[in-house]
Design a protein that fits this description.
Elements (H helix, E strand, L loop, with lengths): L6 E3 L7 E3 L3 E9 L7 E5 L2 E2 L3 E8 L2 E9 L3 E9 L2 E9 L7 E10 L14 H25 L8 E2 L4 E8 H4 L4 H13 L9 E7 L3 E2 L9 H6 L1 E2 L3 E4 L2 E5 L13 H5 L20 H19 L17 H5 L10 E2 L16 E2 L5 H11 L7 H9 L17 E5 L4 E5 L3 E8 L5 E6 L7 E3 L9 E7 L4 E5 L1
Amino acid sequence: MCNVSHSIESITVTDNEKFTYPIVLLKGVILNRCQAGELKLKIDNCDWPASKDVRFINEKRGQFKVIFRLKHGENRVSIAYCHHATEVHLFYEATGNPYSITPLYIICSGHDGRYQSDTDENDIESACHKITLGIELVQSLYAEKLSEKGWGRKTFAISGPCLPFHSSLPVEDSKRMSDQQLWNYFAKEILQSDLFLTEKQKFIGFISSTYYEGISDNDFSYENIKRRTTGNAALGGGGLALFGTGCLYTWPNRLDDIVPAFLNPKQVDRTLMMDDSNYRYTYGGCYATTIGSVCHEMGHIFDLGHTKDGIMGADLDHINRVFTLISSTEDLPDRIVGHRVPDRKPLNSKLTQIKRPGEFLRKYQQQKESDVTFFADNCAITLQLHKWFNYGLSTNENNCDTRLSLNFVTRHVTSINSTLKLIELRDREDGMLKNYWSFLDRDTECFQIPEEICLDGLTLFVIDNFGNILKQDL
């Protein structure tokens, strides 16, 4: 019998906490480890398949992260280490929010639905399982990142598992189309389909026929990889976020494979398979970057613009650090973040540039202290007010008429029957945040944009306390 006095502390969930999503990330610290100690998770007294990552900071302190799935209703969760255990009761009930996200696997006419892969497990069913799990993981990530900002674990609702969507677009035509053209075609087609029932729906689609033709000239730059790939997209806005499936082969389809997938060091054979890892060249890097891209582009369908840093900026590659305990730093090239909202001139958000002097030292310190994955303050404010995250009595569904407006002459932003909570000015060309004002600590119905700010070439974004939004080019 072990005589060490163990302790499990700093657990990030609380007893009787309620969740509106199924996949939970639990973090904690084990004090006073012993040689034979093992972390175990039980739900309702049953061993539960979970993704675990346990790393030890030093001899007396060890961190752990566990990803597990809640069943509907009450879940009695026991976390045990050696002879010590702690228990919490967690409750999962779907939010009931009619504002929801529907995931789709888009199959072009003439295509068999098999995504490009290095295994034979690449059929429609496999793709839908991977996509469903991936979106549930993103759902959990949004909740964790809003919680870290102090807004509670708010997140979006998913209407159900990923559905196959058979498009009328011939697969050969899709190979000649840009991501913008693909977005335009599929967005229109989905809106005219039987799947679209209400304005309270948004969609996230993955194109089955993305095809990487391979590279034989040893030019493995991202620009060349993209040139050799057809039916590819990473574009979000309005009611649709659209993605290619070139790296879907690196995604897991089971919960307990998530952490191994992020940590997978297997090298991508770039002569045969698409590598979208921001120059990490590994399966784990591809999974992290492409899930990060989903987080970013979904941010656009939730009306977020670009920020210098964070998920909506240059830090979308580090999603692996959220769900794992990676002790090493990753010196990745900086991203040039361009505007990806449809119907505007798209810039390539995946291009990289030479790192600025001193940036590595700053990022090294950040990575040692955190997971380097966050929403900037203005983005977090928008999400926690957004109707896709905040449905309830406060959304003013059936109450008085609300209106948001801008007087171009006086530069006053005004709300009627609501209060202003956030005003942003974004660059019209690339969607980058220029200025913002928040009014979380007071009720404000009118705000004058300062005279010294030139409004030419900018876009105004406003959200009120009910989640109503005004977007206007200036």
